[in-house]
Each structure stands twice: as structure tokens, then as C-alpha cells.
Specification:
With 247 residues, the protein is of the alpha+beta class. Helix content is 29%, strand content 19%. The protein is elongated and about 70 Å long. The two termini are 35 Å apart.
């Protein structure tokens, strides 16, 4: 889900008594003040919720090319699906028992639809090599939740034209924290009220994020990229190389 920063700006402006956004040259000082506080609010919410892995995720779409197996993306992969010839989305599993350092991973295998993936040299490596264009839907865990108008993702808001790739509930937390920051810098007593709202809403948000490691502490999540021991991408860089490992 994508939420426009301009819409969030206007919501914060209404709550704090500032005029709505019109253009970059009208009330530029106010524009910079509110945009800065919204940017800082987003960073604060991300830092507060980082233990809650499902809260900080982004969904990207990649179209494969025939004969190309490696694709770059930012973030830790949580799930990958591809659209088959019938229009159904099917999961692409992480090949946990495959030697990901093998330079001949796809050697001797005919091209076809994606049957699995590994992380090879920092890239998403599909097995087998795609035989045509496939639409991949990739969910990644990341702090780069801001989408710029030049089709790049980043962590911090820098423009009114940016968008936040997150749920409405997440954006609501950013809104409340932005109001806290604005009122605090104006020495307005409403800062305390909005801070209490923020803390209550944050606790509720984390409790509803029931699929996270924090919520399911003690349950195994060894699937795909996820390493239960440390929660990081397991690309086997520290594991011994064995030519005999296969699919």
C-alpha cells in the first residue's frame, strides 16, 4: 500500500493549525518545517518498530528476462511469488540445501519457470534460468519505505512528492509522531496528549502484527532467507564449499 506524503502533510497541517499545502513557493518556511517533522517522525517510528519485522516491509515487482538469472534488489527477502500461465501466483521457495557459491548452479539445466532461488553474490539468483518474462512479486524486509518519484526507494522523506510504502495503520503512527514533534517545538501542551495517543496506538499496532518474530518468540521461522538464530539473510558465505551440493 502506498500513501502520498502530500496527503500526510495536509493531515498534520489540519491537526496542528497550519495551512494546507498549495505549492512549493507558497509559505516555503511552513512547508520545510512540516516536511522536516514528518521526515523525522517516520525515522522515529521505524526505529521504534524495527524489532517488529512485518511492520517494515515493502512489496516490489520485477519482470524477468529470458536467459537472465540474476536480479538486484534492496532488503531481506521474505517471500517471492511468480505469475504462472494461468494467472495464478505461485511461491518460489528458497533452496536451503543448495550450494549458493557454485558458479555452475544452472549448468546443464534447461531454461524454464522459476522453481527456486538463492542469494548469489548479493543478487537474487533464480533456478532455473527463466525461459521468458515472468512477473515476480517480492516482499522484502527493509527500512527503505519511502518511494521517490524517480522510482527509487530510500529511508527518509525529502520531497512532498514522495510516497510511503506502508499500511494505513503504520502511516497513522507517523502522523501522530509528527504531531508530537510539531507541538513540542511550538511548546504547545497538545504534544503530551498526542504522545499518549502515539504510545497507545503503537502498542496496539505491535500486538496486531502477530506474524513477527517478536510476537512468536520461540517458534521456528527457518524458511527462505530467515535464519532463526539471528534473523539475518543466510547466504552461506561462512559455510564450507562442497562441489557435490546440488538441487
Amino acid at each position: 500500500m502506498t500513501y502520498q506524503v502530500k496527503d500526510l502533510y495536509n493531515e498534520v497541517a489540519i491537526a496542528t493549525g497550519f495551512p494546507l499545502y498549495t505549492n512549493a513557493t507558497d509559505t516555503p518556511d511552513t512547508n520545510r518545517f512540516l516536511l522536516h517533522n514528518i521526515a523525522q517522525a517516520l525515522i522515529n517510528v521505524i526505529d521504534t518498530l524495527y524489532i517488529s519485522m512485518n511492520c517494515l516491509e515493502r512489496t516490489d515487482k520485477i519482470t524477468t528476462s529470458k536467459g537472465v538469472a540474476d536480479y538486484g534488489l534492496e532488503g531481506i527477502i521474505k517471500n517471492i511469488q511468480y505469475k504462472d500461465d494461468t494467472g495464478r501466483f505461485r511461491d518460489i521457495p528458497f533452496l536451503n540445501e543448495t550450494n549458493q557459491l557454485d558458479e555452475e548452479l544452472n549448468a546443464g539445466r534447461p531454461e524454464g519457470h522459476p522453481e527456486g532461488y538463492v542469494i548469489k553474490g548479493g543478487y537474487l539468483h533464480l533456478v532455473p534460468t527463466p525461459d521468458k518474462a515472468y512477473e515476480l512479486t517480492i516482499t522484502v524486509s527493509t527500512k527503505d519505505l519511502v518511494w521517490a518519484n524517480n522510482d527509487t526507494s530510500k529511508t527518509i522523506i525529502s520531497s512532498i512528492d514522495d510516497a510511503i510504502m506502508a499500511s494505513n495503520a503504520f502511516v497513522e503512527l507517523v502522523f501522530l509522531k509528527a504531531c508530537v514533534l510539531v507541538f513540542a517545538r511550538l511548546n504547545n501542551q497538545n504534544a503530551e496528549m498526542y504522545n499518549e495517543l502515539f504510545k497507545a496506538r503503537k502498542n496496539n499496532f505491535i500486538e496486531h502484527d502477530y506474524k513477527t518474530m517478536e510476537a512468536e518468540r520461540g517458534l521456528s521461522r527457518q524458511a527462505g532467507h530467515y535464519n532463526y538464530a539471528d534473523g539475518l539473510l543466510n547466504d552461506r558465505r561462512n559455510m564450507p564449499y562442497r562441489r557435490g551440493w546440488g538441487l
